[in-house]
Amino acid sequence: MTNTVLKFLLTAFFVIGLTFAISAQTGPPIQGPGPGGCFPPPCIPVDGGLSLLIAAGIGLAGKKAYDYHKEQ
Question: Residue 69: is its pLDDT beyond 70?
Fold first, then answer.
């Protein structure tokens, strides 16, 4: 093998080895369960990004309709 290919393979194996060594370490010990429940009751923010996505879709549709009517 050429010197360049050998250097590349050595570097690749070194980086892959470091990746496995870092991911093989354990995290901190798990504590007991935290305080349960939530207040106020709707704990899941369902509307957080959904309303922005709908607004962006309406804006894009309006722009497309405007461009279509302007072209005619």
Answer: yes
